[in-house]
Amino acid sequence: MHTRESILAYLKSTMSELFEVAQDDVVLEARLYEDLDIDSIDAVDLIVKLKELTDKKIQPYKFRNVRTVGDVVEAVYELANEQEEKKQEPVDS
């Protein structure tokens, strides 16, 4: 299971690698477009990398309202937990 802290660390590393954003700038309050200069093409690249982290297809609608790094962390956290919850659900016989 991924924690919020591990997701944030992954984002810092990934955004630094992909977009040459300083890791210190990738904080929960940072706005993706205004503060980190992430455009729509960059956002698609980021979603592809997040798919590698979650090992699950990410639906674009889940990221429609994402504006900050914190929003990304929460969306990925929910996606990761949703995946874990499905694994733990009892199977009806």
Secondary-structure topology with pairs:
Elements: H1 4-19, H2 40-54, H3 69-88
Helix pairs in contact: 1-2, 1-3
Account of the 3D structure:
With 93 residues, this protein is mostly helical. It has a single domain (4-84), classed as ACP-like (Non-ribosomal Peptide Synthetase Peptidyl Carrier Protein, Chain A). Helices cover 55% and strands 0% of the residues. It has helices at residues 4-19, 40-54, 69-88. α1 packs across α2 (40-54) and α1 (4-19) crosses α3 (69-88). It is globular and about 30 Å long.
Summary of the model, kept short:
This protein is an all-alpha fold and 93 residues long. 55% of the residues lie in helices and 0% in strands.
CATH superfamily: ACP-like
The helix count comes to 3
What is the overall silhouette?
Answer: globular
Main beta sheet: strand number and arrangement? none
Order of helices and strands: HHH
Output mean pLDDT: 87
Count of DSSP strands: 0
Please give the CATH class.
Mainly Alpha
SS class: mainly alpha
Counting structural domains, the number is 1
